[in-house]
Amino acid sequence: MSVMSPQLKLIALDADDLAVISTHVQDARVQPSDIIWRQGEKRLVVGMSRLDWEQTLAGETEQRRLVSALRFDRVLACKSRNIDLATPEAVLDLVGIEFHPRDGRDEEPGGSALLLFAQGGAIRLDVECLECELTDLGADELGTGLGIEGEG
C-alpha cells in the first residue's frame, strides 16, 4: 500500500483562487461522460484524473494520478465548443481554467469561467459569481479517467 498525501480540497471565490485550482488541474484527463451539467441546480461537475502535482514537486519519480471532482456553482449558462458528447469515452486533456469578469470590471462578481482543453475544446460557464471547488476523491489506480457516475 502506497502512502497517500492528504486529499486536496480547494475553493475559489475569485480569479486569484481559480488560478491556484487551474495549476492543480493542469494536464488532467477528462472524459465527456464525466462532464455533468445540472441546469436546474445551476451546477457543473467535472470528474477528472489529475496529476498529483504535490507529489511530483516533492521529488517523487513516479507520477501519480488522483480522481478528482471540479464543481462550479451559481452557473447561469454552460456552453461547449469542440467537445464531442457522442464519444463519451474520448479523453480530453485539460490545459487550464481562466476567469473573465463581466464587462472587464474586477469589482463585479459575475463573469465567465473558461475550461480550456489541448485539442481546441472549451467549456464556457457564465456565472453569477465565481464559486468553484476542487476535491480529491482518491488515487486513480488505473491511471485513466474513471467514470464518476459509474459504468453504463
Number of strands: 10
Instruction: Calculate the terminal CA-CA distance, rounded to whole Å.
Output: 29 Å
Q: Oligomer, anyone? A: single chain
Approximately what portion of the residues adopt beta-strand conformation? 35-45%
Q: Give a quick account of the main beta sheet: strands, pairing sense, barrel closure.
A: 5 strands, antiparallel
* Principal-axis shape: globular
Structural class, by secondary structure, is mainly beta
Secondary structure tally, helices:
2
Overall pLDDT metric: 86
**Overall number of structural domains:** 1
Q: Indicate the low-confidence ranges by residue numbers.
A: 144-152
Strand order of the largest sheet: 1-10-5-4-3
The portion of residues assigned to helices is 10-25%
Order of helices and strands: EHEEEHEEEEEE
Radius of gyration: 15 Å
Organism: Bradyrhizobium rifense
Pfam family, one: DUF2948
Protein name: DUF2948 family protein
InterPro entries: DUF2948
